[in-house]
Design a protein that fits this description.
This protein is an alpha+beta fold. Helix content is 21%, strand content 42%. It has a five-stranded mixed sheet with strand order 2-1-4-8-6. Strand 1 and strand 2 form a beta hairpin.
Length: 123
């Protein structure tokens, strides 16, 4: 590889790393029948990484199909509009959210009825 191409490749790599480092992270905890925070507030049109942590002793999910469908996903995935986590598991998704208010719930039987719901507010 020529020195000029090598220099360009290194600069592009540094720029991508710097951009990723500047993306804010919103931590979301999944606990026994609760999410933390209960209201997730994000900036419309600004990239954010949602970092999910299941602190419970059993599986839970973060189901928000309207939210994920409206967002532009940059990395990670939310098949069928949900993030499924086994006990103790973590996951991350980087996206650009669209403005709106979106409901979140756990899709496991009776978890929503036991209080496992939240709201995402994107302004």
């Amino acid at each position: 590889m020529s020195p000029l191409r090598l220099m360009f490749a290194a600069a592009a790599s540094l720029a991508a790393t710097a951009a990723a480092a500047q993306t804010p992270v919103q931590h979301v905890e999944l606990r026994s029948y609760a999410y933390g925070p209960k209201a997730i507030r994000l900036a419309a049109g600004k990239p954010v990484t949602l970092h999910f942590m299941n602190r419970a002793g059993k599986a839970h999910d973060f189901t928000a199909p309207r939210f994920f469908a409206a967002a532009r996903i940059l990395s990670g995935s939310a098949p069928r509009g949900q993030i499924e986590l086994a006990a103790g598991q973590t996951a991350a998704i980087t996206l650009v959210p669209s403005a709106g208010t979106f409901k979140v719930h756990c899709g496991h039987p009776f978890h929503k009825q036991l209080g496992m719901s939240a709201v995402i507010e994107v302004r």
